[in-house]
Amino acid sequence: MRPESLLAAPLLVPLIAAVLSLVAGRLPWLRRLFGVGGMALLLAVAVWLLALVRAHGPIATQVGGWPAPFGITLVADHLSALMLVVTGVIGLATSTYAATDLDDREVTIGFQPLLHLMVLGVCGSYLAGDLFDLYVWFEVLLMGSFVLLLFGPKGRPTRAQLQGALKYLVLSLVASLLLLIGVGLVYGMTGTLNMADLALALRRAETPALVTATSVLFMGAFGIKAALFPLFFWLPASYPAAPVATTAAFAGMLTKVGTYALIRTFTLLFRQDVAFTHDLLAVAAALTMLTGVLGAVAQNDLRRLLSFHIISQIGYIVFGLALDTRLGLLAAIFFMVHNILAKSCLFLVSGLIRRAAGSYDLSRIGGLYAHRPALAALFLVPALALAGIPPLSGFWGKLLVLGAGLEARQWTIVAVAVLVSLLTLLSMTKIWVKAFLAPHPVAPPLATGPTGRPVPLALVLPTAALAALTVLVGLFAEPLVDIARAAADELRDPTAYLQAVLGPKGVPR
Amino acid sequence: MNALLVLLTGALFGVTVHLLLQRNMVRILMGLMLGTNAVNLLLFAMGRVTRGGPAIIPPDQTALTQPFANPLPQALILTALVISFGLLTFTMVLLKRVEDVEGTWDVDQLDDRPPDGQVSGGLETADQADADEAPP
After folding, report:
1. What is the mean pLDDT of chain B?
2. Would an 8 Å CB–CB cutoff place B31 in contact with chain A?
3. DSSP 8-state assignment for residue A62
4. Are A166 and B94 inside 8 Å of each other by CB?
């Protein structure tokens, strides 16, 4: 089998799984089986693809057989393949969690097919080799996420969900508008939309200043998707309102697609005025870190707090990109993987806490350490990883980002990053103290108290698996660093990427 | 023709921005609608509007005869149209639903109210739903 044949698999698997779990209709167990099985298959395929990319370098295929600048191109390099694997991991964990967390009726309405449709959009965005395709995959992902977001208890959206979805929807549509404007202008300047072809065409663009101006449109569009400062307001409004499994999936997939698109376009395409674009990104990154964590410190609701941390962590990734060095990109990619695992895990843990204590509100829960020591341990692993305590994954992520920042002599932003790290630890400590150590406040009418419902093992399992991965990445960071280094090298020198898409003859030396 | 298209696109974008900054949800929706059309016109203009035949090679020839119209923008616009149609329809339904629940079209009034679970609106709130599903 030629390695290119595998490229369509990460798209076909979620599509087929979505259709199958949709027609499974009134048999909730079959729906769950297709949903979870599809994600497991996706993960297997993604790992296989990553292995192939490790062996052969970037792989590209032209759908329908039209040669590169004309056909629809699917490309997988190290970055894409790695992101696909992580998406598979999160998909598997969240769909397993949802299979138990949501009751039969909620499953019948269709969580699993929707999750698969969203994952289809996510995988498509990672594989797209064409700017317009990227836009289309973004829309696929958005449509899935809109409906998932409105997926309320007993199938009806709550008020918070409606309001959150309103903000998310309108801002997403504005982002799509910006992206499409950018796509149109780039097409008008170069006459091509294939990313590899564009990379070459933009290098010899007659008016680099115009290209730079257009690149800011892309920065705005992807910045909204990635929740970059000052475009993040939709995130804390919409994420906490959805069911836990949805929020965990969003945390691990959606903002990261925006970040991926930023990394892709600002390494491959928009290199006309690095001093301007990447400095802009660096300032945005610093402010994103700071506002995110300051927002988090002020929160009392577990999931709102965690949502603000998503924003803050995006800052670290974009900072790595903004440095525009090999170490910076390596750090960004490593950090992104660590962050997806730790963040989704934390959201799943928040669901367990809610089950055990009856509320997400930190002022209404407490005393969990005495009653649920295992849950406390499960919370500590991703929380400490997020704060960057060795030997967990976050320690290496932050070490790499800070090292890259010091190497590039960005003292101010490194100082901000260190401060944000401390504040992250502070807000994790806040959860620890309020939910686990402090005695339970006088039982309020709505909470069921710390001796509430037992936590099913089927919910603990995916959560524990993610936590174990965080530990594993921390203890054995080298393989992941190797992959991230290879990905960073490909981003720094896109010759292999261009040759994979355009053929060996299509790329001038 | 190109100048006309560019002017029209610019004007539409201006109106879009104005409408998006309004507080009334219907106006925001209108803004999004106009915006998607403005983008489609932009894509059209970026493909260089020329008078010419369709981009089809006649059976007895091996290449296109000049002048021919650029077919790509049409494909792009068609795709973008379908996508925006779907998304805008969804937005319309969502806005109506928000208005049903909140009783207002004004986005500012949405935020002034307390969040979920602290207001008696007759609607099932998240916390009440939680209480329902908890065992006795």
Report:
1. 79
2. no
3. E
4. yes
